[in-house]
Q: What sequence folds into this?
């Protein structure tokens, strides 16, 4: 278990939220930018040099190449597709063994910046560890070493040598993981929200700014904070009420307790990052909810015990829309690398 687990009682959450007036249609408070900068902090766009570095270029090829899997048809990009902004439109994805994943594929965009560890349970400490584990997971190989002859056969040895020039034998599962981490670290998508935080007043509409204020005063930001608006802590999904009756989840997932076997960890999940959330439906760890409006209502109800007025939900949705960035230019297969989008994975 890599990450530190941070659990807050709901009283502490309430104390973190700045006291703002509840008037319906006021313009946002002037101190909003200051409060938001302290709670979130901006996301920086990658430099062209970062994306062009040999390790990132190698990682880009590895990410999209369907030949590098046990069935010859599965790449990282098969479950993290461009049309779904690095996530998957299917509630569950299919791996190289033809099996369904046990949880929804979250977006890889911005994911290397998640402070508390990766995946729904934050049980991978780094992108390198996550990718290396995928060799025997999603990619379907029996042992991690089994990917090495496949890489050699498809001509990857020179690219590994260029990416790891000081190593006598650079073609290893660990370096496969490092290259994928380097590539994914370039997949950052600053958005209108960051431009507004940096001082560009017109970057967010008045409704989006009001939505940000709602996001703070409703209590969302107590859990969804940091530059990704999430990914920084573990929390119970279902603080005020059980989630399953609201999400309609067929097989409720007990979260972290499934790994730790500790009863206290029941229903604990990583707080989902909300960057690009308007493009990454369906929602939650089991993709049970197709619509962001409904997901927002469920969050308010089960996390905060609140029924939101329609106008408040509209404002929150407008704010979340301001978290949509441009798809990075390098979020695509490089020339000559075979890739196919699985049926149903993109809208
Ligand atoms: C068969 C579908 C599938 C394939 C192929 C796949 N993934 Fe994933 N990926 C998932 C699922 C499902 C999760 C969430 C698993 C969980 O939390 O239990 C995930 C999680 C992740 C995360 C964590 C994101 C976050 O915000 O926590 C990263 C990063 C990632 N995958 C990168 C990769 C890379 C790199 C590859 C290729 C080596 C890959 N994936 C291949 C389905 C897939
Ligand atoms: C007590 C902590 C907490 C609070 C408060 C909270 N959330 Fe969440 N949120 C979470 C957790 C944990 C998840 C992941 C749930 C799961 O396992 O699917 C999540 C998931 C989400 C998702 C789904 C994201 C995805 O990619 O699937 C959205 C959207 C969301 N929250 C929005 C909000 C909004 C809007 C508010 C305020 C009305 C809010 N949240 C309040 C903890 C919280």
A:
């Amino acid at each position: 278990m890599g990450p530190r687990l941070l659990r807050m009682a709901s009283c502490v959450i309430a104390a973190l939220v700045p006291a703002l007036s509840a008037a319906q249609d006021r313009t946002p408070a002037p101190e909003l930018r200051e409060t938001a900068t302290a709670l979130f902090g901006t996301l920086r766009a990658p430099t062209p040099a970062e994306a062009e570095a040999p390790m990132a270029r190698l990682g880009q090829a590895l990410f999209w190449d369907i030949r590098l899997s046990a069935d010859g048809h599965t790449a990282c990009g098969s479950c993290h597709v461009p049309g779904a902004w690095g996530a998957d439109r299917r509630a569950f994805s299919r791996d190289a063994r033809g099996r369904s994943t046990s949880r929804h594929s979250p977006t890889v965009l911005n994911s290397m910046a998640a402070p508390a560890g990766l995946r729904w349970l934050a049980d991978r400490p780094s992108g390198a560890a996550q990718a290396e584990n995928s060799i025997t997971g999603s990619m379907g190989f029996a042992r991690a070493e089994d990917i090495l002859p496949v890489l050699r056969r498809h001509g990857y040895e020179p690219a590994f040598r260029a990416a790891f020039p000081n190593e006598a034998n650079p073609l290893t599962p660990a370096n496969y993981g490092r290259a994928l981490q380097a590539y994914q670290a370039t997949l950052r998508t600053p958005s209108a929200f960051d431009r507004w935080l940096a001082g560009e007043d017109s970057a967010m509409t008045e409704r989006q700014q009001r939505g940000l204020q709602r996001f703070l005063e409703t209590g969302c930001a107590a859990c969804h904070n940091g530059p990704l608006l999430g990914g920084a802590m573990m929390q119970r999904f279902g603080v005020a009420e059980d989630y399953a009756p609201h999400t309609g989840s067929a097989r409720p997932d007990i979260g972290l307790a499934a790994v730790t076997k500790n009863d206290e960890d029941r229903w604990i999940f990583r707080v989902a990052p909300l960057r690009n959330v308007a493009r990454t439906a369906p929602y939650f760890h089991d993709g049970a909810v197709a619509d962001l409006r409904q997901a927002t209502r469920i969050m308010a109800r089960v996390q905060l015990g609140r029924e939101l007025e329609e106008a408040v939900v509209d404002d929150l949705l407008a704010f979340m829309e301001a978290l949509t960035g441009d798809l990075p230019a390098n979020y695509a297969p490089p020339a000559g690398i075979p890739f196919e989008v699985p049926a149903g994975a993109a809208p």
